Task: inverse folding
């Protein structure tokens, strides 16, 4: 397959998701909790991978070090799987099985790309080979200022569970759920 064909297909998939979000047909993030579970999944998974990378040296560890290794692996892995399960259940509940699985993969890849972009910019600003440190720090502060300015509009655009349910005519009132 030609690489242009892959990029065209990815572009069409992104366009499909964007049209679904704008027209309130697809739930991207169901709630703030779903958004943060998606983001924190990568943090806890990275912690788990960091602990798991110590596994080859496990035979040289003392008993206490082995206990902390396994404790860290189990705790970080469990929290990462819990965050993944939370975003998985919210996506399936909001979009159904087929579209939900597609949206789960799309959300995870989207979040991963955004995290890598932000961390890449931070890494670029603190690169040792770069002589213009003050200029890069100013650029980094400008990126953070833009994130601060655009966080609420972006969050309200991507966290659209209530808007989609309202358009579908589903009951979204919290008071009626607590009254029963």
Result:
């Amino acid at each position: 397959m030609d690489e242009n064909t892959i990029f065209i297909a990815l572009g069409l998939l992104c366009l499909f998701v964007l049209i679904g979000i704008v027209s309130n047909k697809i739930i991207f993030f169901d709630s703030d909790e779903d958004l943060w579970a998606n983001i924190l999944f990568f943090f806890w998974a990275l912690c788990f991978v960091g602990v798991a990378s110590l596994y080859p040296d496990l035979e040289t560890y003392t008993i206490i070090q082995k206990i902390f290794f396994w404790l860290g692996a189990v705790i970080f892995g469990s929290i990462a799987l819990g965050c993944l399960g939370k975003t998985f259940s919210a996506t399936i509940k909001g979009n159904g099985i087929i579209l939900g699985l597609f949206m789960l993969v799309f959300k995870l890849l989207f979040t991963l790309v955004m995290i890598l972009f932000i961390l890449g910019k931070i890494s670029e600003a603190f690169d040792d080979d770069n002589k213009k440190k003050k200029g890069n720090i100013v650029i980094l502060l400008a990126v953070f200022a833009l994130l601060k300015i655009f966080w609420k509009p972006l969050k309200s655009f991507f966290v659209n569970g209530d808007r989609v349910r309202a358009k579908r005519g589903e009951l979204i009132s919290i008071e009626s759920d607590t009254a029963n």
Notes: The helical segments are 3-22, 32-52, 63-95, 97-125, 133-158, 161-168, 174-179. Confidence is low (pLDDT under 50) at residues 174-180.
